[in-house]
Amino acid sequence: MNKGLLFVLSGPSGVGKGTVCKALLKKMPDLIYSVSATTRQPRIGETDGVNYFFKSREQFMQMIEEDQLLEYAEYVGNYYGTPRDFVERTLEEGRDIILEIEVQGALKVKEKFPDGIFIFLLPPSLDELKDRIRGRGTENDHVIDHRMNVAVEEIALMANYDYAVVNDEIDLACERIESIVIAEHCKIEPNE
Amino acid sequence: MNKGLLFVLSGPSGVGKGTVCKALLKKMPDLIYSVSATTRQPRIGETDGVNYFFKSREQFMQMIEEDQLLEYAEYVGNYYGTPRDFVERTLEEGRDIILEIEVQGALKVKEKFPDGIFIFLLPPSLDELKDRIRGRGTENDHVIDHRMNVAVEEIALMANYDYAVVNDEIDLACERIESIVIAEHCKIEPNE
């Protein structure tokens, strides 16, 4: 049996990774979503093992120590990471898996899975990204400027990715990613 | 303006390249079909410049001499070739072009357009291919065996291609090729 393919969907904060990933999983029921581990508290409606694997700080630190995470990061006082075991088991079973993660984390995953397919989700323009970040409503100008600077730095890392997909419309972005998944399955490896 | 992409659809004789290409062009009106030059007589319903560029033997020989053909071959006493000029103009205009050609010709095009995207159309199985060749009706067993041997040799050349697409159903094969076209447009070049 062939191993599954590892897809990583990443891009700057505010670009719409979560929304696109959700729509994609609806369209492609065979694609498995890589559930992240986190130390943050579950929100109402979130289920352990579906939205996140909810862990105590101690459990999370142990996962780091035992190299059980492909990547992890701290964000607003909480830890988030990608459990290695679930990814590896899914691929061994011959199923494709998709990771929806931040840009820095994606680059760490690339060190461990150089054969993964790395997709960078782009805003239609930087103005549009600013609007989207502003649209969340809760941020002040200083926070927005900081996020924009981070986004520009992250976009500069796009050269490390395999594909760039513009998120102009969710349906179009999904169609492009679905095409990438189909095309990658048709690819002939140079050393085959 | 970005240059268009060059796609080459190839595969063993009998695999259904022509049928798939025709269906694909219907589905993707922006894709330009590379019209071949030939010395054979037009058949009823064929139009010069649409189905083929019909040339005299002298004209064809001159095109070869002037390096106006990306590839050419003799088949049952007639010459067939791909005019370079039409391909280059289409790409310069920023439009994608598709060449539907034999395996040997595709490898010659690859020497001249290493950045082209080479798609190998595969039969679902060798038995299926034999049935399709036999299905044309006019061939005797000796001719069928010869064609099968050639097909097996051609399939061995698949490693020189970028993608393999199984022609199990025309619609599915078209969908895969359309996905390859979309994905290739999202690709980030390593040296960008």
UniProtKB/TrEMBL annotation, chains A, B:
ATP binds at residues 11-18. It comes from the Bacteria. Keywords: ATP-binding, Cytoplasm, Kinase, Nucleotide-binding, Transferase. Residues 4-182 form the Guanylate kinase-like domain. Gene3D superfamilies: Guanylate Kinase phosphate binding domain, P-loop containing nucleotide triphosphate hydrolases. The keyword NAD does not apply. Its EC number is 2.7.4.8. This is Guanylate kinase. It comes from Paenibacillus profundus. The gene is gmk.
